[in-house]
Amino acid sequence: MPNLLFYLFAFLSVGGALLVVLNKNAVNAAMFLLVSLLGVAGLFVLLDAALLAFVLLLVYAGAVVALFLFIIMLLDTSPGAQKPFTAAAIGAATIGGVLLLLGVRSLCKQGAMPLAPAGGMGPSLKNYAEQLFTTYLLPVQIVGFMLLIAMLGVIVLSKKFEVTEKAP
Amino acid sequence: MNPFGLNAYILISALLFAIGFFGVLLRKNTLVIYMCLELMLIASTVALVAFSRFNGTLDGGVFVFFILTIAAAEVAVGLAIIVALFRKRQTIAVDELNTLKH
Amino acid sequence: MTMLQYAIALLLLPLASAAFIALFLRRAGGPAAALSTAAAAVIAVISVMLLLNGGHFESSVDWIRFGDFAIPIGIKFDDLAALMLVIVGVVGFCVHVFSLGYMHDDPARARFFGGLSIFMFSMIGIVLADNLFMIFIFWELVGFSSYVLINHYHERQSASDAAKKAFIVNRVGDWGFLLGIIWCYYCFGSVNLTTLAGLTGDESVVCSKWIPLLLFCGALGKSAQMPLQVWLPDAMEGPTPVSALIHAATMVAAGIYMLCRIHFLMVPDALSVIMWTGTITALYAALCAIVQSDIKKVLAYSTLSQLGYMVAAFGLGSLPGEPGMGKLALTAGAAAAMFHLTTHAFFKGLLFLGSGSVIHGCHHEQDIFKMGGLMRKMPVTFLTFTIGVLAIIGLPGLAGFFSKDAILYLAMEKNPAVFGILVFTAVLTSFYMIRMWKIAFFGSARSESASHAHESGLSMTLPLLLLAALSIAAGYSGVFGKLAGSIVHLVPEAEGSTHTTMVLISVGILLIGAGSAWFFYQAASTDALEEKSPGAFGALEWLKESFDRLYNYYVAKIQQRFAMLLNFLEQIFLAGLIIRGFAGLVGLVGYGARALYAGSLNAYVYWFLLGAVLLWAFAAGIF
Predict the structure, then answer these.
(1) Do the beta carbons of residue A115 and residue B2 sit within 8 Å?
(2) How far is B89 from chain A (nearest CA, A)?
(3) Would A39 disulfide with which of A13, C110, C198, C235, CB 3.0-4.6 Å?
(4) Is there a contact between B91 and A77 if contact means CB atoms under 8 Å apart?
(5) Which residues pair with C65 in a beta bridge?
(6) pLDDT, tens digit, for every residue of C543-555?
(7) Å from B65 to nearest chain C CA?
(8) Other C-beta atoms lying within 10 Å of the C-beta of residue A6
(9) Distance from the C607 Cα atom to the nearest Cα atom in chain B, whole angstroms
(10) Is residue A8 domain-resident?
(11) How close does chain B come to A104, measured CA to CA in Å?
């Protein structure tokens, strides 16, 4: 049973990803990204990180992909004529593919790595919160600051620049 | 619950990352490229959670929180830039956005 | 104020005057002249006061320090310095007053007086210096002031050329001088004059005979001895007061002064070289002076000749029978040289200023063959000029007689060959001086400007009178004794029967030289020698030109080619390979870095991939 679930979620995530890349239509690509996210969330659950799975779905699937769709439909573009791939692109893709194969091969030869004892700090909300607010307090603060800056940045970026240029 | 070892999860993470990379390499639509970037980030979160589970610590998971936050902010700002760019250049095909050449 | 403070004020006053003129009074000729002359007056007063006060003092302060090594700046005031200071002060003051009148109509008056002030500062620096480095610093400064002042009429190409020539020839001498100073420091560990005197007091500590010769190179350049004498006649391009102050009385005498300062370093070999150099210069210059037609050039060659006398006197060293060097404060030769320097400063300064008065009166006519009849038109000038001429040719009773006699006596005792040459030169001196005197002042006016000549104003005649008085008086031991303190006892004096011999020889020289010149030359508009014996005239002229031609050949053929070779090498290696090579390298790196800024996104992805590959290889252990 766990095998099956694993295979299912793995298939979802990798398959979704492939289809994101291969699809011509941008909206379709966003949809398949969603599918891939579902698969990943399932993998998280299999890894005993249910909280993270839900957070992932909430933030990514709920906010990020929605934003993507919003923008895709705002910028109403028609897919232009697909130009043929340049030699550099093909070359780079080949190298990437070779690297990927090497990686996969080395991983498969590794042999199964054992599980750690299930004790220790279990992944629960309480433990996560404890970590976040003690050991990782500084990164939390910085990330908060960064969100503020991102907000400011977005506001500035979305102003109409023509208006300020014409101002006397 | 985990008949497979760490290898499988790392393999998935690697595959996702590679696919995302190919997407960035080969697609022309800026928005799709951006989505493939997000794919790469997701791949890294998978790897992190897998390692954290197999070491019995929480650090990987905590880091995933940060990655999510960063990704969200990044998407917001990046999309704002793309929109501004579209307003200026009326195109989002990557090979036409090349005025920063030396 | 203590004496030391007066001495420091003496040094800094002309510097302040020059700085003030340079900063604020560039266009204001009148105030600049007044300021500079006032400074000169104060200098004269202070120097006389320091002399009358007596007392010796020394003081120094470290100026630059590099670890163990320090360049000190200090003041050494003894009899020698006192004497030299009075000469510089008095003659300087006379020249300043003279320039008030002479340069009255010159538009660049302020620059001239600024240059004079800088010169006074530099010269006083040399006089008061207590170590060789300081002497060198002020040596160079004096050379610079000379350049500025010779170049006063810089619109004239000949003036610029002459200034350059003076500076460059001096530089050649200064190179030897500097080598000598460095060697001296290396050998003895100090360049302080008092320390050196103490060290070399006993004759066993003699480092090398080349140190004094190298130091003499400086005097070769500055006092225009052979073979570096070529700059002095050309330096007459400067205004006449400059010629009087710098190229007759003080700067060229700095070489002699420096030699006297370092006399304890001398060894017999060096002294004989010095003696012969001086003698040959004296003879050469006297021969060249016979055929000059420019009044200032005659005086220039005369200066060269008298400087040769001084150098030869120094080279003669001590009287036979006296204790060796180092036991005396100065050798007899050095004392005789200083004596002649003093009297020469007065009467040559007088002669130059007198010629300036003549030139000014004849509206800037300098050719003696175009003058004439000035005896009646410019009586004061004529009187003072005559006193100067008689002093230089050694009329008994005037200053020049005593100093020249001292030298001739010393030569007679020590080296008959030198004595013979010096006597012949003295005859020639009388010869050409009387020639010039007669042609310039006697007869009738031979040109427009001479016929309209008029006596110069007070500002020009007063210094003439003062210097004339000094030319008469400075020879007597009463006056010179006051001036020179203990030095006067070292001057060789003939006694008894040799005294009579010397007087006879001197009078004989005078009569032969002057008499033959008087009867040979007419106050006509052409040179009698040229008419009657063109061969001799041509030979003497060739003598004068020979050095210049030799140097021209050397510079044009040898030095110029060497310079071009070096230029070629520099273009290839330094400018090309090293400088442009490095710049090109940096440019290449920049060009490569620019390639990173491809506009297309895909290129950045390729770079990313490259980075990933490298990291992979690194992790896999390939590197």
Answers:
(1) yes
(2) 12
(3) A13
(4) yes
(5) C70
(6) 888 888 888 888 8
(7) 26
(8) 20
(9) 11
(10) yes
(11) 7
Residues in chain A within 8 Å Cβ distance of B47? none
Using the beta-carbon criterion (under 8 Å), do B80 and A56 form an inter-chain contact?
no
C200-253 pLDDT, tens digit per residue, is: 655 445 567 788 888 898 888 888 888 888 888 888 888 999 988 887 778 788
Of C601, C604, C605, which to mutate for an interface test with A (greatest number of A Cβ within 10 Å)?
A: C605
> In this structure, what CATH number is given to the domain that contains residue A12?
1.20.120.1200
Cβ atoms of B69 and A142 closer than 8 Å = no
Two structure tokens written together for B80: 């704002």
CA distance C34 to C47: 20
Residue A60 within any structural domain of the chain:
yes
- Residue type present at position C172: V
Among candidates C594, C597, C601 on the partner chain, residue whose Cβ is nearest the Cβ of B94 = C601
What ipTM did this prediction achieve? 0.88
What is the C-alpha separation between C297 and C157, in angstroms, rounded?
18
Contact C426, C513 (CB under 8 A): yes
- Interior CA angle at C117 toward C112 and C122, to 5°? 125
CA distance A166 to C38: 71
- Tens digit of each residue's pLDDT (9 = 90 or more) over C3-25: 888 888 889 999 999 999 989 88
**Residue C305 near residue C425 (C-beta atoms within 8 A):** yes
Tell which C residues from 550 to 609 touch A, by Cβ distance under 8 Å: 602, 605-606, 609
Tell me, what DSSP letter sits at residue C491? S
Q: Please answer yes or no on whether C605 and A96 come within 8 Å at the CB atom.
A: no
Contact (CB<8Å) A95/C613: yes
| Cβ contact C128:C7 at 8 Å | yes
What residues are paired with C66 via a beta bridge?
C69
Specify the DSSP element, H or E, that contains C161. helix C157-188
3-class DSSP string for C434-469:
HHHHHHHHCCCCCCHHHHCCCCCCHHHHHHHHHHHH
Does A84 reside within a domain?
no
Minimum Cα–Cα distance from C602: chain A residue: A89
In a domain, A128, yes or no: no
Its domain, for residue A37, covers 1-78
Domains: count for chain A:
1
Decide if B42 and A60 are in contact by the 8 Å CB cutoff: yes
How many residue contacts between A and C have a Cβ separation below 8 Å? 14
Q: What is the maximum span of chain B, computed from C-alpha positions, in angstroms?
A: 55
